[in-house]
Amino acid sequence: MITPAFELTQDPDFLTIVIRVPYARPSEFDVFFEGEDFKFYAKPYFLRQLTLPGRIVEDGREKASYNTDEGTFTIRLPKEIPGQYFEGLDMLTSLLAPKKSRSAKPLVEEIAASAELSEEEEEEFDWEIEQTPYEDSSEGTPLLQHPYGFGNLRSGVFQRLQDELSDVIDVKDPDQTPAEERRRKRLAAEAAKFEPDHYLADFFEDEAIQHVLKYKPWWVDAHKKMTALQRECHQEHDTHTFVVFSEEEREQLRKFTNKSYLLDKRSRQHVYLGLIDILLAYCYEICVNEGDKNVESSWNIRKLSATLCWLESFTCIHDVLVCFGRRVLCYPLYRHFGLVTRALTDTVTILQLGKAAVLKCLLDIHKIFLESDPAYILNDLFITDYCIWIQKIKSKKLAALSESLQKTTLSKSHMGLELEELEAAAVLVQEEEKALKAAGTVSKQQLLSSESETSDSEESSSTSSSETEGSDSDEQESSTSEDGEINPFQGTLQEERTAPLIDCNGLRQGTNASALEVSDEKSKVSLQSPSLPGKLIEELEMQMHSAMRLSEQPEGLATAGCISQEQEENPTPKPDRFSEDTAGKGNFLEVSSKPNSLLFLCSTNEEED
């Protein structure tokens, strides 16, 4: 027989049961309901026992229908008490449990001494028991094993799974490690793992973190709807109506085996606090990945939950929050205190939505661990038991737990990692760097301003020099010859007209405007004219192509180095450089056709010497 998929809904007067039975014969089905019991049969589907949270009645208002397209039976059953609220209609595993096993009483009880068996009913005791040699406990495995898992009900599991141990939990040899030693080792490992540079980097450069903090998971909208409806009606409503289970989640609920847990007061406290720790880690994972699952999802959840990673047993809510905050700041990619407070807020919201919301989160964790090769062990130790147990607890317990969690305060000083001191020191360093940077900027601006002033002064000097050259040029243009022709040398060489001719034997006195240096070694003459502007020198060089000759001032020649227009039109034949005519009359300096090329002609007397 196949257990069919089903779901239950309600209104004030009716309970509606939708049963999915594809390929079944609608003409052959049986339905039985009475009080809190409901049974259904349609070959090959059989819903053997469905124990309802409230009583139903057969009064003629019941109705059943079959949808051939979807292959579903819809059965509407009237409530015995109209307006009664049936709690836990989404807890399918609990509804499928037999009625006699719904009690949490111990399955094994000690029978009173008065109920002794008679001697004839007493079985014969076998004295022949198997005997084994005595082994010293110090040489073998110690008999004492420290429990762990859901409600600390398991032990000896990791002795058989040593190969998987290192990939799942951080504590070594948990069966022989007491709870106090686990806690001490956990705190030491967290202190060694904490990296101030990583924390400060996420503290100052938190653009990506602020982005993920804006993500809103499904429970945020569900809580808003529930709060708005409660304000309008001024009464509490069923939180299950705001939580919707997928078909895959319903199928997983039907696969769970119903169990009863024998938990004392201390064990129940550990279970509730461990639930908070697991939900905090799950909320962090959903927030930073914005609801998407990846290969790191399983690692994030089990690493951030000390209940799963260190098999921790907490004693108060504050210890849970401090432990979770420390692990967030030590292990994952994003290590920001804002993510700790966000996970805390989300966990409170989930608990306020009731056990349906908690169960939906646990089913998601179960699926994540089931798809991760080493983490499936945590399903057997914790998550599967939590999924079954949460369906049987009262919603008032979760409401009280969420209220206590909401009142618990958590700050950075509680982390024990000197976060506030690190932040203050980092802020001071940052302010010093800004001050140094600002001072460097001011110095750079001053340097640029000084360079700009120097450049401006150079430009003004160059401008004044250009104006001086322009005025000299204007004076030169205004100078003309006696017959009205322009003389380019008149204005510039006005002071040099009385300059003597160059003599090879030495320089005569009176060369104030320019000096001619004669080098005996290289037989070259350099003309230095520091009083002439550079532009005029270039113009003089271009004019050197003209025929110009320096000699002893002949009679009738007014200026030296100036050639009149008549001489240019009627040039006289030049004597040979070493002709007899020129011998004894003086030394001549002729200008070559190349610019600035001067040639000294020595007298015959010097050649003879």
Automatic annotation (TrEMBL):
* Region feature Disordered, mapped onto this chain: 440-507, 551-590
User: Which residues are in the CS domain?
Assistant: 1-90
One GO BP: box H/ACA snoRNP assembly
| InterPro entries referenced in this protein's UniProt entry, alphabetically | CS_dom, HSP20-like_chaperone, Shq1, SHQ1-like_CS, Shq1_C
Which GO-annotated molecular functions does the record name? unfolded protein binding
| Localization | Cytoplasm, Cytosol; Nucleus, Nucleoplasm
Gene3D superfamilies, alphabetized: 2.60.40.790
Q: Recite the UniProt keywords alphabetically.
A: Cytoplasm, Nucleus
Q: Which GO terms describe its cellular component?
A: cytosol; nucleoplasm
Q: Where is the composition biased (Acidic residues)?
A: 469-485
Basic and acidic residues bias (residue ranges): 574-583
Asked if the record carries the keyword Nucleus, the reply is yes
Q: Which family does it belong to?
A: Belongs to the SHQ1 family.
Its name, as the record gives it, is: Protein SHQ1 homolog
